[in-house]
Amino acid sequence: MSVARRELLGFATAGLLAYAADLAVFGCLRGPAGLDPVTAKSVSFVAGCTVAYLGNARGTYRLARPGGPRPYAVFVAVNLAGALVQLLCIVVSHYGLGLTSQCADTVSGSGIGMALATVLRFWGTRTLVFPAEGRVGSWTG
User: Fold this and answer.
1) Tens digits of residue pLDDT in 29-85
2) What pTM does this model have?
3) Residue closest to 113 by CA, chosen among 136, 134, 87
4) In this structure, are residues 117 and 82 in contact, taking their beta carbons and an 8 Å threshold?
5) Which residue, among 41, 26, 28, 37, has the nearest Cα to 96 in the 3D structure?
């Protein structure tokens, strides 16, 4: 398997696990716990971010050699930017468009918002957190 394929597959796997954690926590907090959508998404973000970092640091980019707290701090910053994209989608849908059902909140935050945020997170993770010079066998040159 090529380096490019392994990286994309690893990132996608970590992302799917993080997405599952995010969606499950959001659903529980928005449904049974009865929290508002922005609070529920904020908390579910933390769960998803933690799963994604562990998956990428110990899986996808395990051969990278970045040291110290910087990679984690940058990862959190990249994921906060992604979370803002998701929150903005919920705010626009829920408060701007008046689509206030749990289903609409899930589609806007965990569907549309997650898709847009994933593009940002992939770029940020591979470019800023685990840059090409820190990866072994990078396909980015």
Assistant:
1) 998 998 999 899 889 988 988 898 889 988 888 887 667 778 888 998 999 999 899
2) 0.69
3) 87
4) yes
5) 37
